[in-house]
Amino acid sequence: MTWARIDDNFPNHPKVVAAGPICELIHVRAICYCNRYLTDGFFPAAAVSQFTSGLDQVALTPGRAAMRQAGAVAARGWDADEVDWASRMVAGGFWSVKQKGGVVGYEVHDFLDYNLSRREVVQLRENKRVAGRIGGVRSAERRAAAQAPAEAPAEADIQQLPKQKRTPVPVTRTQKKKDSLTPAELANDFERFYADYPRHTAPDRARRAYANARKQGAPHDAIMAGLKRQLPELMAREPKFIPHPATWLNAGQWRDEITLDASALSRPPRDILRDEWFNPCDQGALGECVKTEFLSQAPEWARRQCPEHAAR
User: Pick from 282, 286, 280, 279: which is nearest to 301 by CA?
Assistant: First the structure.
């Protein structure tokens, strides 16, 4: 869409005042037509009927005011649609007769002095289209860069980067471990945790929960220390009351402090019970068979899990 440009003093121009408001209206319509179709001010004679539409509702009555605006036509009492307005526009200096491409028509006087030519409009639209495309590409690149993980710049880009002074930031041992952790190390640490946890349920959820805990800065040693600290209390429970490993990790329960009551847990006191007791063996949850001296003090549900131990 283009915009028709008209001087704000146009209604007060002596030529417009002498021609009257009807000529003023027709001329504005002609300017809008030429801008809409990018004709550089030319329009065919057949288009004049569009500019004079609605004039059948206007009657030119005799009188001084009417004679000043419509000349001798008003004195005769004609209707506005009976007037040859194209001739009056040519006579008033608004239009000039012109033939273009074998088509007879008119040309708006000084049209290109105030309005853009077809070539200028086309070029302006092309510039906006190209600018919009470039802006869209850059916006997509910014969104992709914001969503994608940070990547090291290419070697060619590094050579072009200006040198900047950087203040070293102290990095803790935990941060170094987290940043340097490889997928293989993470998988190995999880397998160690999962093997020691007393309930093996939903391993995929547990693996995601473990990875999330590590990404948030929880060291493997801290998780294992918390599990080791709580393992006697967890092993004393019935299996259905032991939290799923994913639940235990998501809640950060390795940070919980457990106060144990040896008599209530139906197991030997912690100071005489070796940690290896709670490492599962290949056959059950009680540990290796060499720990038979504590078998009678283990929970009943645990003794039922290993046929070899239960037989003793």
Answer: 286
Global confidence as pTM: 0.42
36 pLDDT more than 70: yes
The CA distance from 216 to 210, in Å, is 10
217: left (phi over 0), alpha (psi -120 to 50) or beta: left
Can you read off the two tokens belonging to residue 127?
A: 């510039």
> At residue 89, what is the residue type?
M
pLDDT at 82 over 50: yes
- Burial track 156-195 (b if 16+ CB lie within 10 A, e otherwise): eeeeeeeeeeeeeeeeeeeeeebeeeeeeebeebbeebee
pLDDT tens digit string along 244-266?
999 999 998 888 877 555 444 44
Q: What is the tens place of the pLDDT at every residue in 224-250?
A: 999 888 888 888 888 888 999 999 999
Cβ neighbors of 272 (< 8 A, separation 6 or more) are none
> Does residue 216 have a pLDDT over 60?
yes
Domain segments of the chain as ranges: 10-120, 173-259, 263-312
Alpha helices in 84-182 (DSSP H): 85-91, 111-114, 118-147, 155-160, 173-179
Closest CA to 198 of 311, 308, 307, 299: 299
